[in-house]
Design brief:
By secondary structure, this protein is of the alpha/beta class. It is about 60% helix and about 10% strand. α12 runs parallel beside α18.
Amino acid sequence: MEKPLQLVYNKDGKLQLNLEALKVLQSIDDPMVVVAVVGAARTGKSYLMNCLAGDKKGFSVDSSVQSHTKGIWMWGQSLPQRPNEVLLLLDTEGLGDPDKGDTNNDNSIYSLAILLSSILIYNGQRNIDQQSLQDLHFVTELSKRIQMKSQRDGCSSWNFVRFFPEFVWVIRDLILDMNINGKDVTPNEYLEHILKLKDSDSSEQDKKYNELRRCIRDNFPSRCCFAFPIPAHRKKLKQLQELEDKDLDEDFVTERQNLIDYIHTHKKVKRVVGGQLVTGRRFVELAKAYVGMMADEVLPCVESSVAKLEEVENQAAVDEALKFYDDGMKKFSESGCLTMSKLIENHNARSIEAFSIFNKRSMNNNSGKYIQQLEETMSSTYKSLIAKVKEKSQEECETHLKEVMSSIKENLTSGHYLRPGGFQELKKDLDKAIKEYEERSKNEMEELAVLTHFLEEEKSRLDHVQKMDSQLTEEQKHVSALEQEFSSMKQEMKMMEQKRKVAEEYRNKEIMDQIKKRFEEGKTCSVDELKEAMEHMRSEMEKYEDEGRMEDAERAQQRYEYLKKKFEEATKWSFMKFITENAETIAALASIAAQIILSIARK
């Protein structure tokens, strides 16, 4: 992405998405680390994001008292340290801009930043005091502005920790020493000290004080802090964007690099509930869903947004897989090599790769609906090609047979073979013609069927010649000479059918192995996500206990137990259960499912 683009803007009091920005995001196939910065207006958020991007002339920076950033701007950067991931920076407009005077817009912008990011940077000034915490008031209203499920329940907000971003507090222009009770502390220790609750909730002021801290501690899965001193002399700050490192405070440069290293090397890739990675395409669908709900004055619902994303992604995965299969089979059908063996070979190879393409793009495909759609559509195409191959093969075989059998049919009609030794001559001619026919019709699907049909049609005349040959014994006359030929052809057809079945079984096993692998990957993502959330809540519970906040510790314990139950359910969810519960839905693979269930049961 050469330059930043506006992603979200406000039109007539409602948030809108910039289609140009969405088009750029659609082209990003790699997972993204999404970093959003929030904070008061005119506090240097854009400068900070430019530092993370490694480009001084990225996001627009202005030294005036007027807020410069409106809506949300984005800028995508590649990460040399992480070649298969993309860093997406989101620069938001400032909190409390007097020119705007719209707190609802502020809350919508920052709710959206939380929903879309994997790392949320709060850019505060000077030190962490009550005023700077008050600027984060929107955090306390998140349960009123975001809902986890379409049907609210008492546990809905307990899931926030599963999808909320990491929280990074950046203190700008720090003027106080990092010192608590006479002891120097690190920025992280300073943040933890500030987030401790007051001993009492007796006054309204104390309740608000503690509520904000609870929201940060309970909802964000992790947190850290970076403290920046004033970067340069006040007179130089207007040109901060152009200053070289040698002109900046040494400690400022060091802490800035610490933040850059943290963001660039941290493993916090954006995921949705369930642990699935978010690519540019998936980010677009989430943004559309959330902004659409806000525009309709409906609370953004995580569950329904992710469900819509899965629907779009899974259907796109089916379409992409089918295009690969259809393009390949169309090319094969136009090649002129329409033999049954090659058709089976191409179908098996293409369908296996099509499922691989589908599994690579699909999300949490636990319903089997899209597996069934993909398999049934490919099967329909396959059957259509079989009919086409069969028709063409029959025409080719009948032409070859007519040519090689023409003299034999003439001799049978004229009675040429109805004489002593005639049957031996007929048999010799017939063996020669069949050999030539088999050579001409080699690999044709209908080779044996057409030949069998011809011999059955001519059987009475062939038997008549045999019975009229006076050189044959009575025993030879009563045993059909075609029985051996028919037996040989039936054996050959049986072998061909067996080969086809073996090839089909190999294909089905490969596909089922892919489905199982995709299931296990999805399960691992879900389990890891829940484990992280559960461990965070346990850590907070222990901290509350150390602070003597037993009621808060008990509340954290309840959330921990809730997440633990979800974790245990996800851990117990097995592939055999998936197959069993979806046997009807994936009807096209029902027989394979039964085999898998039996094989698992035997183990």
